[in-house]
Write a structure and sequence with these properties.
The chain contains 42 helices and 16 strands. The protein is α/β, with parallel strands linked by helices and 975 residues long. The protein folds into 5 domains: 224 residues, Beta Polymerase, domain 2; 142 residues, Nucleotidyltransferases  domain 2 (Four Helix Bundle (Hemerythrin (Met), subunit A), Up-down Bundle), CATH 1.20.120; 111 residues, Four Helix Bundle (Hemerythrin (Met), subunit A) (Up-down Bundle), CATH 1.20.120; 218 residues, Beta Polymerase, domain 2 (2-Layer Sandwich), CATH 3.30.460.10; 148 residues, Four Helix Bundle (Hemerythrin (Met), subunit A) (Up-down Bundle). The strands form 4 sheets. Strands 3, 4, 7, 8 and 9 form a 5-stranded mixed β-sheet that branches. Strand 5 and strand 6 form a beta hairpin. The longest helix has 31 residues. It is globular, with a radius of gyration of 31 Å.
């Protein structure tokens, strides 16, 4: 105990205070007869962080010393805990009586506060912590609604809503999260701003109206979270954002809330609804509320006068603080240059632009800044300044709240307290903290003051660089001062760009060029990676014909100019695409405005509309149109990825949908051309015979990466021959059809190549026929297929061609893959041998950096998923899915003995795929390995939200180590 106490005090910002807090926890443990396992590194780390940096957490541990062991053993101590896991954990603790519910809510919340506090202080990402706190509030609201809703229904009668047609259904309650709860940016001591909405006023609950029932329910839910007991509260619930504020009804029906905002909605209420989210209760009703109010929140046309409204609201908030007469230190939330000005800056621009740019409709502040950047509305320098200040100020805010557990945003005035705060923030002292604070707040204040102002001209220094006004040494010194890593190389790239940019391009573009060129160079030099961006600018400048149209477009659309500069400094992959196809200027501008997510149906309609514009017979132009569509969609997806709008699985799903549309439409092209010459393939009875294109691998699982091949195989209906003037046997007919499809996808069109096709997963691999009849394909799997082929078939799905035939082929594949009869131990041994061979040959047993084939990599996760599918799939239909992620999530629900391992594997899969996507899009390198160059590793780490390459390497090793343990546990499982 003495040794542990000394370790806790050593290096603490306030050693005496840390020692006292350790003593209180130890005394509490002794009184409660709780043994502290002080040789557990996680226990010691929790104690160190709590006693040294977060007195409130130490208080929670002293109040319940058993909490220390529970939190230290939580598998989500170092990774983000999903909301569904919180809901399951809370359900296990929740009793029946109200007092038991209240106690369970408060104790669970306290446990989570300690876990999340530790993650904030070094065991996780502060941005993830804000999301987790919001999800904690969601599940607590859900538990309170479920409990008190059931109690009231038993006492008063079930709430039944009646439709205009006389139909009846259970009335529902939705909780709309507003503010930081809606934006998933909650603080440790935040109120939760909510609006309660129920289905309808038509109906009743027993003898009382629905309004009375829902009002009682909302009062009880609010009290369940807000009441202070001997065990504290859960969250303070703030209802002042509801219609008519504190004078309004506690709950409103959907029709009444729609009428209110249509008639009385004010500008500040529009601004508040930018962050609205269906937080708890009925998510379906919550989604209906948001859809109903979308025209109010995002009208198609908005006056720039909204900027004045935002400024006025900011002034009133500050005036309120002055009237309050608070005599304390700087308010990191409401002070000049504080968090609120960053939020209001982003929201003002959302209010102006999001009505006609759906991509800007994002709730989080950092997400909004990213989207504004990739819509070309703000520069990277502005985004970087605001995002850096936001993270810095939020961290101070969290540390202030972890001091006492109270809602505060004010820094202390006393020098001694400032010194302690500085050290808790890992600053050397108060002076360093105050200097950093001033730098951030001055930058924020300056940018907030520019809202609504005209764009400033380029800096004189940049104009001089473009004009070549400096000598070689002076120019190099300026480039170094502008933070280019390699000033000599930058100077060479600048000279290349300068020669081309300043030479005449024709009279029509001359004026645009003079206006745009210095602004473009300024944007490039302020981009995330100016060295890289300057290189791509020089390369684009030397592409013939690229500039004349682009000058005009950038002059007419300043967002395009900023977007190109941001793209060049953010993504090597997308930059090369744009340079190869500068005609993508329109597509790039559209991508910056488009929704990040499009359905397969929407994409297919876009393809159909584009192909319909091309005269019949011009198949080359049709293929080129598909390539142009693909390029434009890759830009859309890539921008959504870089901006953080798309999660790793969503990126893969979007990429897979684009590939599927190209396969479908490409298949139609080759079918038509072949039928003109050789007629229709028919079987021996004269019935038409189709060809099905079946996807496997990552396409089958909807898990494509940016540069993935498409794994496919081809199955046709049966033997016979075609009925044209030059008939062909069906096998030859279908082979030609498949070859033409593959050729069209592989050919280098003017807009580029569509896809590489890999057919090696067909029967007998590259030695087998390219196409198989359905009967022959089924016979092969019954008689000759090997284990790995059974694994491969778990990811099969039809994607193009004859849909009915594809469905029959999928049934054959499923029947074979899930036929059962496999001994689990034999399967595990075979898969382990195969896994070891892959690791040895592709990664090397000692290589820790291969995301796919290395120890604990993606293949571990895929094999674990496929093991469970092959072993349990015959009896558990929910596991029969081509998606690795869906299979693992199903196993979490259906295989209790492995729920923890499968949840970890699902989380790790998303983590590794996100790194894989970022390697490709940032570096345009093989997505399989982490960069060996420390500079490139640092760059990748920052794109992933980490401090540096060392942090990425440590996180990667931790994740892959946990994956291998989970993989071993899954393959040891015997049903």
């Amino acid at each position: 105990m003495t040794v542990a106490r000394a370790a806790i005090c050593d290096g603490a910002p306030d050693p005496e205070d840390a020692g006292r807090r350790f003593d209180r926890i130890a005394e509490g443990a002794e009184e409660a007869d709780v043994h502290l396992v002080l040789d557990d590194p996680d226990v010691l780390e929790l104690l160190r962080l709590s006693c040294q940096k977060a007195p409130y957490l130490a208080t929670l541990l002293a109040r319940d010393p058993g909490r220390l062991g529970r939190v230290a053993a939580d598998p989500y101590l170092r990774r983000q805990k999903p909301g569904w896991v919180m809901a399951r954990e809370l359900a296990e603790r929740t009793g029946v009586a109200g007092a038991e519910l209240n106690r369970a809510l408060r104790r669970y919340r306290a446990d989570e506060m300690v876990r999340l506090g530790a993650r904030e202080l070094g065991l996780g990402s502060p941005l993830e912590v804000g999301v987790e706190l919001a999800h904690l509030a969601d599940v607590c609201l859900d538990a309170a609604i479920a409990h008190h809703g059931a109690v009231l229904a038993a006492q008063l009668g079930r709430p039944i809503a009646r439709g205009d047609d006389g139909s009846e259904r259970e009335a529902e309650l939705a909780v709309i999260g507003m503010g930081k709860l809606g934006g998933e940016e909650l603080n440790f001591a935040s109120d939760i701003d909510v609006i309660y909405v129920y289905t309808s006023d038509q109906g009743a609950a027993g003898e009382i109206s629905l309004h009375e029932f829902m009002s009682k329910l909302c009062e009880r839910v609010t009290a369940a979270l807000s009441e202070v007991t001997e065990e504290d509260l859960v969250f303070r619930v703030d209802l002042r954002l509801r219609p008519e504020g504190s004078r309004g009804a506690i709950a409103n029906s959907l029709p009444s809330i729609e009428r209110y905002y249509e008639t009385w909605g004010r500008p500040w209420e529009r601004q508040a609804w930018l962050k609205a989210r269906a937080s708890a209760g009925s998510r379906a009703l919550g989604a209906e509320v948001l859809a109903t109010l979308e025209p109010f929140v995002h009208p198609r046309a908005t006056s720039v006068a909204v900027v004045a409204d935002v400024r006025d609201l900011n002034r009133r908030i500050k005036a309120e603080l002055v009237r309050g007469g608070v005599d304390s230190g700087f308010d990191v939330k409401n002070g000049t240059g504080g968090i609120r000005e960053i939020e209001f800056f982003a929201q003002a621009l959302q209010l102006i632009h999001a009505g006609h740019r759906p991509a800007l409709r994002t709730r989080s502040t950092l997400g909004a800044l990213d989207q504004l950047l990739f819509a070309g509305i703000i520069s990277d320098a502005e985004r970087t300044a605001l995002a850096g200040a936001y993270r810095f100020l939020r961290r101070i805010e969290h540390l202030l709240q972890l001091e006492t557990g109270r809602q505060t945003q004010r820094m202390p005035r006393e020098r001694e307290a400032l010194e302690v705060l500085a050290r808790r923030l890992d600053q050397r002292g108060a002076d360093e903290l105050l200097v950093a604070l001033a730098a951030h707040t001055v930058a924020v204040s300056h940018l907030f003051a520019t809202l609504g102002a005209e764009e400033e001209g380029p800096p004189a220094e940049v104009v001089a660089l473009l004009g070549g006004e400096h000598g070689v040494d002076e120019e190099r010194a300026i480039l170094a001062r502008l933070k280019l890593r390699d000033p000599e190389q930058a100077q060479r790239q600048l000279e290349r760009a300068r020669r081309r940019v300043t030479s005449p391009f024709g009279r029509a573009a001359e004026g645009a060029r003079a206006r745009v060129a210095p602004l473009l160079l300024a944007d490039v030099l302020e981009s995330p990676d100016p060295d890289q961006a300057l290189g791509y600018l020089a390369e684009l400048a030397h592409r013939r014909g690229a500039w004349t149209t682009l000058w005009r477009m950038m002059d007419e659309n300043p967002p395009l100019r900023r977007l190109i500069a941001s793209l060049f400094g953010s993504s090597a992959y997308l930059s090369k695409q744009f340079i190869d196809h500068p005609e993508l200027g329109d597509a790039l501008l559209a991508a910056g405005r488009a929704r990040a997510r499009l359905t397969l149906h929407e994409l297919d309609e876009m393809a159909a509309a584009r192909l319909a514009e091309i005269p019949p017979g011009d198949d080359e132009e049709r293929w080129n149109a598909l390539a142009e569509l693909k390029n434009a969609q890759i830009l859309r997806i890539g921008l959504g990825d870089i901006a953080g709008e798309l999660a790793a699985d969503e990126v893969s799903a979007e990429l897979s949908a684009v590939a599927e549309v190209c396969l479908r439409r490409g298949f139609e092209l080759v079918c038509g051309a072949l039928a003109e010459r050789h007629g229709t393939a028919r079987d021996e009875s004269g019935e038409p015979v189709g060809l099905a294109v079946l996807a496997l691998g990552k396409l089958g699982g909807r898990e494509l990466g940016y540069a993935s091949d498409l794994d496919v195989l081809f199955v046709y209906g049966g033997e016979g021959e075609s009925d044209g003037e030059k008939p062909l046997p069906n096998v030859e007919y279908m082979t030609r059809l498949a070859q033409r499809l593959m050729g069209g996808l592989h050919t280098m069109h003017p807009a580029g190549r569509l896809y590489e096709i890999d057919t090696r997963l067909r029967p007998s691999g590259s030695k087998g026929l390219l196409v198989s009849s359905l009967a022959g394909w089924a016979r092969y799997h019954q008689e000759s297929a090997r284990l790995w082929e059974r694994q491969a078939l778990t990811r099969l799905r039809p994607v193009a061609g004859d849909a009915a035939l594809g469905a029959r082929a999928a049934e054959v594949a499923s029947a074979f893959a899930y036929a059962g009869g496999i001994e689990p131990a034999e399967l595990a041994a075979a898969m382990t041998a195969m896994r070891e061979k892959i690791e040895r040959e592709s990664a090397g047993a000692a290589s820790p950096v291969d995301l796919k084939a290395g120890r604990g990599g993606i293949i571990d996760i895929e094999f674990a998923s496929q093991y469970l599918q092959l072993v349990l799939g015959p009896e558990v239909p929910a596991l029969r899915t081509p998606s690795t992620l869906e299979a693992l999530r199903a196993a979490v629900r259906l295989v209790p003995d492995l729920a923890g391992q499968c949840a970890l594997l699902a989380d790790a899969y998303l983590y590794l795929r996100r790194i894989e996507h970022r390697i490709r899009i940032v570096h345009d390198a093989s997505a399989q390995r982490l960069p060996a160059d420390p500079v490139e590793l640092d760059k990748l780490a920052r794109r992933l939200g980490l401090v540096d390459g060392g942090a990425l390497d440590a996180a990667y090793r931790r994740w892959t180590g946990e994956v291998r343990h989970a993989y071993d546990a899954v393959l040891a499982y015997r049903k």
